[in-house]
Every structure is written in C-alpha cells, then in structure tokens.
C-alpha cells in the first residue's frame, strides 16, 4: 500500500469541497473494493475521504410510496432492516447474500452501486426496480446510471446520497455464487409492478443488463416455464477460466426461473 | 515437476505411486513407467497424500471402469480381486511388502454403513426431483511412515514433584501429539494424563528423530513413547527395590505404583520420584529409541453425490470412511485426520485447479478469489469408523492415518461422479468437477 492521508468528512458539502480541491482524493464508504485495490498497489489516492458515517447518507424509510435507502447503509443493515423486510423483502434477501459477515458489516449499498462491479449483486435490484439514484448534484434513473464494466453516469466528485426504490407488487432475487469468490456468476432480479415485469441480470456480462425478451414472456404469463426457449444471446456474456459464456447464459436463465418460482411462492 | 526438482516433489510422486501401483488387488504382473517433465510452472512439492491419492485415483477409477464394462457390481469385482488374507505378508510386483490387512472386512463394513444395496432407490427418488445421484467407492492401501532419519528418540524427564516431561523431535502442527503421545506414556505408566507434559523440538534437548510427515508420528514416535515408558519402569525397579528394601526381582509395577510381588510393600511412582529428587540428573530420566519403518493403512470410503443438471452443481449427500489405522490411540484424533483428508480430497475433486494462461504463462488462479478451496459447509457430515487390525511392525500397533482421507476420497468422489453422470450419457470425465465442466459434459452428451 502506498502512503495516503485519511480524512473524515464532517458533512456532505465538506466531502464535496475536499474532493473538488484534491483531484487524487478518493471517497471511502465501506472500502470493500478500494482498500484491497490499494493493498495491491493498484490505486494510489492522495487522500481517503471517509463519508461512511455522514448522517446525510444514512437512514432507511418508506416515503411517498417509495423505499428510501441511504447510500451509506451497510449490507447487514439492509438485510436486517424491518422496514425493508416488510416493504421489499427481495432487497433484504439480496443484501444477505453479499460476501460474508465481515463484508456485510462494512460494505455499503452506495459504494457497491458506485463501483458497478459486473459481479456485484445490488445493480440488479437497482435496475430491475427502476430505482432513482439521488446524488449531491442530481437524480439519475437506473436506466441511465449503469454504463458498462465499472462505469457509471457519476461524474467526478459526484456522491450518491440515497436510492429511491419503487416498491413492486412482488420481486425475487436468485444468485449463483462463484465457488471461490462468492460473487455472482449470474444473479437474476425479477420485479413485477403495475408497469410490468423487469428482469435484471448481473454477474454474467460486462455490466448489469435487462433481459427484455424474458420480461415480455413473463408479462404474458408469470411462470418459470414461460422462460423456456426465450432467446438470451451469449455473445456478450463473460468468459473466463471459471465459466464459458454458454454456461453463464444458462445460469442467467436458470437463476431467472428460480427467481420466478421464489416470487410466485412468496 | 515444475521449474525445478524439490526433494518431496520428485521422491513422493514417484516412490509412493510405484509402491502402491497394484492397490489392494492381487496382480501377478504389471508394467509402468514414469515420464517426469520439467516445465516453467511452480515446482511440485508434497501435499497430504503426496502421490498416494494420485495412484489410488488411477487404479480405483480403472477398477470401476472394468466393472462397468464387465457388467459386474463394483464391490463384487473388488471382492474377487482383493489380496486374500492368507497371502500376507504380500510382496507386490513393485516394491511393497504389505502387512496383514482385511480389505474385504473394511469394505463390507463400509457397504453396510453406507447402505450400498439401497442406493438404487435413492437414485430413483433423486431422478424424480430432476437430480442425478451417484455412489462411488474406493478400496485403498497406503505405504506410510518410512521416515527419513534412521531412528526416533524420545526422552522422559522426571521432576521433583513426580511429574513427567516428554521430549520429541516430531512437531505437532495440529495432529494432536499433546494428547496422543502423553496418553501413551501416561497409560503405560498408569498415571493420570495431566502428569505428563509434551515438549517438542526443545532447543535444550539434542535428539535424533523424524519430522512430522508421511503419516508416521503415531506409529514412529508414538511407539518410542511406549518403549520409553516401559524402559523407565525397568530402570526404576532397582531404585524402587532399594526404597522398599527388596531384591529388584521382587518388584513389580502396575497402576502407577511399584510393589512387592509378595507382601504389601508399595511405593507410588510419584513418591519414588519425590524421594529421588535430590539426585542430578534425576535417576528416573529415560532416553529411548527405535527404528520404525513403513506401515500399511488401508480402508474403504464411499461417497454419495447428487448433481443438479441445470447448473452442474454437485452436492455431497453422504460420506462413509472405514479405515484400518491399526491400533487407535484416540478415535477423535483419528476422526479429525480423516475429516481433514476427506475435505482436502473434496477440494481437489470439486474445485481446486491451478490455471496458467497458455499464451503468456500468467498464473490465473493467483488468489483464493479464483482458486477454489473447499468450504466448511461443503461436506457437512462424514461418518468415520475404525476397522483396526493392529500392526505388528511397531510397538504400539498403529498404522498411519494422516493421509488416508485424501487418498481414499479422490477416487471415491470421482467414481461417484462417474456413476451419477453415466445415466446422462457422460463417459470419462476428469477432476475437478466444477459446475461449469459438469454442465458442459451433460450438454455435450445430450447432443450425441
């Protein structure tokens, strides 16, 4: 690890001003990706500006028919929040599948979504639930937010403050965990709301994506069988030493089926 | 062998497979040759089992393949070909001389425990759930405990309070010597276990002995512990006789005390040690040594697996391990060794794989995020049973157990996977049985 300075931000405006004045400063929430990256000397920030404890980034509530989750909410908080378990149990269940207890007690939803790791779990929920990402500068819709591997609509110095999740009629998440790392080799978030069905697949491709052909099939009939034969191109799937693109496409389909079964059983 | 030869890499991976090339079967002749290749990868070293699992994996898979082609039950084919009990000590066509073993007895015990005959019902029930269930067995033997130094020494020192400190070279790194060595000495002397303390590799005691490895510590050092305790008794008898005012020949020892053969004169071990505490060094201090060679532990392991054909994920449904580890000093320690070995085998069978990029030579499994180690929840229950036939090759009767779990589990799991995949039309498949590989093999068979 290279040398750096630790700065604990006192407020959101304080954090914003600090990173604006220090181009090599990095924001630190849970540090679950940033710290390992620094340990491997793949990142050399001048400062770490800790925003994990900022009150503006905290809090979980249902407001105006939406579930509002502060960006600094740790995975464990999301997994165990009575508010979320009641309003959006699929999101609580998803958070409970992330990493291990240590990671869940440090890592945050804002950090995970801002990082947009292709194998992260949260992006699937954000996209399938058509959430709004509220930053210190603006509101971004999920459809515009995820732009590719580790790439988002966030501008330099822009900080996610909270997420506004539309509360679906029903939703479910199923994940195939990588046997070694535990990250999603494929994860499927299926949400049904008044506006129809949305399916977001994470882990399988370079970034989270919607499986629109399957959304149409499920809109006609919400059943696992309805997914049989629905086209899912594997050209864009990831291929590495652990899984071929064909296998990942298969996992995406199987996980979607299982999410549908779970959704129907709930 | 990797980029250069390491002693344990080349020796273990040639000697052990050569010794055990015919497994537990009467094999009049065989031909084998080794092709030892140097590459530009990390050198091979000994890892629990060290060549024994490799050859067991090859032999036991071949036996299953033969049973399949001959349409004979896999257990029956083994039964017919086991080395018969009256042929021990059995000289193998290579370099082994097996000590008496009960291969058939081990296997019957395992088959009963695992409900071998009821398997087809469980397979049918799994099929109804859309799963592929398979059962596999292995019957294996190992050569263990040869050691690399000519002898093992054990020193016992007695203190003024009558407590004992035992010094050995062999060092425990989780094998539980603190429990087993001390219990051998305490039990031989009829003393409470807490009267004996173990010090390993003590810098103040120059002893000759072997390292911990090759499943040898109990058979080797454990035997010398027993010899040392017996020697201590004999050495102390004249001292006790003096105290009891008897001829040494009139003194006997039992239950922690020296006593007159006739009459009621007695002095406890502790009292004698305390009385002699003024002399330096303490006259009851003892040094013992012995040369202890190979033992031949063997056993039968049975694995039952269930594959989800949609994802290629395998769940281990049950696991039975029946081992002849010779005299068992402490079943819990034996069970711990078997657990570790079996889970290690499961790791190799289902996940572990070192992958280099063919074009660049870059190691692609450089961390545990990519290199799949077995997890605690992977194998939730292992049924471990002893089938002890005490060894006559060492004082304590122990055979090695440190590597049996790994040696037997690799072929047991592989045979179970083959059995599970056969109805799906999948033929030969090598480890590791990763979900991706298993799924692809099922897909490929569908396309046939």
Give the DSSP E fraction of chain A (strand runs of 2 or more residues). 25-35%
Distance between the termini of chain A: 46 Å
| Oligomeric composition of the shown chains | heterodimer
Largest interface, counted by CB within 8 Å of the partner chain's CB: A-B, 13 and 20 residues
User: Compute the gyration radius of chain A: what is it?
Assistant: 18 Å
Question: Strands across the major sheet of chain A, in which order?
Answer: 4-5-10-6-7
Q: Quick one: biggest sheet of chain A?
A: 5 strands, antiparallel
What is the β-strand count of chain A? 14
Characterise this structure.
The complex is a heterodimer of chains A (266) and B (448). Chain A is α+β, with helices and mostly antiparallel strands and 266 residues long. In chain A, 34% of the residues lie in helices and 25% in strands. Chain A has a five-stranded antiparallel sheet with strand order 4-5-10-6-7. In chain A, strands 11-12-13-14 form a four-stranded antiparallel sheet, sandwiched between helices. Chain A has a three-stranded parallel sheet with strand order 1-3-2, with helices on one face. In chain A, a hairpin with a 6-residue loop joins strand 11 and strand 12. The radius of gyration of chain A is 18 Å and the shape is globular. Chain B is an alpha+beta fold and 448 residues long. Chain B contains eleven helices and 13 strands. Chain B has helices at residues 7-19, 52-70, 74-81, 103-113, 119-128, 177-189, 217-244, 269-275, 331-350, 404-421, 435-447, and strands at residues 90-91, 97-98, 132-141, 152-158, 164-168, 196-200, 251-254, 257-260, 266-268, 286-290, 298-308, 313-324, 383-386. Chain B has a four-stranded mixed sheet, sandwiched between helices. In chain B, strands 6-5-4-10 form a four-stranded mixed sheet, with helices on one face. Chain B has a three-stranded antiparallel sheet with strand order 7-8-9. In chain B, helix 9 (331-350) links the parallel strand 12 (313-324) and strand 13. The model of chain B has no long low-confidence stretch (mean pLDDT 95). The interface between A and B is medium-sized, with 13 and 20 residues.
